[in-house]
Amino acid sequence: MNVPIIDPLQGDFPEVIEEYLQHGNMKCIAFNRRGTLLAAGCADGSCVIWDFETRGVAKELRDKDCIAPITSVCWSKYGHHMLASATDKSLTLWNVVNGEKIARVTLQQTTLHARLHPGSCTPSVCLACPLSSAPILVDLNTGSSTVLPVSVSDAGNGTTAPHQRNKFSDGSPPFTPTAATFNRYGDLIYVGNSKGEILIVDSKNIRVHAIIPISGGSVVKDIVFSRNGQYLLTNSNDRVIRVYENLVPRKGAAKELEAMRSLDDEFQGIEKLKVVGSKCLVLFREFQDAVTKIQWKAPCFSGDGEWVIGASASKGEHKLYIWDRAGYLVKILEGPKEALIDLAWHPVRPLVVSVSVAGLVYIWAKDYTENWSAFAPDFKELEENEEYVEREDEFDLMPESEKAKELDINQDEEVDIVTIEKDSAFSDSEASQEELCFLPAIPLPDIPEQQDKCFGSSSKLEDSNHSGSPFSIEAAQNGQAMLPTSSPLEVVGNSTAEEVMGTTGLKRKRRPSAKGLELQAEKGRKPLTKIKPSAKLSKSKNKHGDGLDTNGFVFEDDVTDEYL
């Protein structure tokens, strides 16, 4: 994806909150390699995957065995798998496409950060950083684990042995979380310990190749590589973020370090490891707030490695500090009055995503301003009206200046529209491996609508029409339909009945007398016959409501079954 062409007004770093995402109480986030999907771990043990282009939920992963809050999420290299660690000491590997759980491993301590091996297409090995012990290499297939060395004293036998003065009175190890991360291809592991040192460990034979001491000797809380593997970032307890330049080749780094150790025979032991370390990492920049001396949280690089961002660890503050690689503070972003707990920079776009303690995910983006000259280089914005002098050949069909610019173009040359150019940001992608960039949309079934309540009411009306009341029986004999007693048309006064009949367009007979009932019964047995119109007869019959109209025809009630 060529981002500069798609968005010519793209800036370098975000400035304002564009929008926020809400789904439960989210605790941690992570982008996939392309930045098209965003994974978030929730407090109820579930993981939500957002489609970052549409900002909608693409999939939700839920394990019935895990109801503890998620502490970290991590994508595999090609996005087909995702690893989640929780406070119940579990590590769960998911298949993102079908949402199935592949493996689940329970450790002895709670994992703060977990990372999948970046060099494997189908990862089975992960790096876990527990709460208060050394980092562990975990095989997700077998459940076996290997403890990594965190000091030079245990470099020979591969076991952890914290310094005696740092132990508690009962001899248990101290509460000092240790940070660790893979390099770009996963053949080396960089471990930051509590004595202010960076150890470079071989991930295969668990052997320490080099040691890099950090000035100040403070506990290393975070250690992060840039996307291209050229720079390494550390966050120490002395409130300083340090950036180191990586001098080791990206590929074959473990073999290169082994060769460096074999060639240098002048020093032995710890001194030799430090000499090798000086050839691996060189301090490049230091970032800190010299005024407030605040602690930093979740520092990381931008997608291209040109910017460094860190969040304030103070309670009730949602502040982001952005520096350029030269060491200058370029922007301070202030968010809502909610403490920040996690942070991630988009892999290829100037977007930052942060998680607040309230469980909301905020998206920070560039505040774009209209600049029409970016689309047309010869476009000039005017502050005020200016008098324009027309050129002599300006409106000619073919100006002389255009004739001079006419180029010789071979129209028969074939244009290659099949070959895909490799993006420099994803130059290590394998053509044979299909990368998961988007998840297919699964439509939700419609909620069945409730049955019409009028259907039940109409059946009740029919039952009431066939009830054994004398008026219904009589109406059935005369072929007429009578309204039920519960009908809204039954009124007490004549005026009300006339109003209702006028509004509905229906006619209704008054209740007949005893003599009228007898006459209706007799006429029901005889066919309808035409009667000569007589003023006296018409007047008398209509007076008693016997059903004769002015033309001498016997009429029936206009209220039919259609009304019911």
Automatic annotation (TrEMBL):
Start and stop residues of the WD repeats: 26-60, 70-104
Stretches with biased composition (Acidic residues): 555-564
Record-linked PROSITE patterns: WD_REPEATS_1, WD_REPEATS_2
Main localisation: nucleus
Chain segments carrying region Disordered: 500-564
InterPro entries hit by this protein: RBBP5/Swd1 (IPR037850), WD40/YVTN_repeat-like_dom_sf (IPR015943), WD40_repeat_CS (IPR019775), WD40_repeat_dom_sf (IPR036322), WD40_rpt (IPR001680)
Keywords per UniProt: Nucleus, Repeat, WD repeat
Listed name of the protein: Protein RBL-like
Family matches, as Pfam families: WD40
Subcellular location: Nucleus
Any one annotated GO CC term: Set1C/COMPASS complex
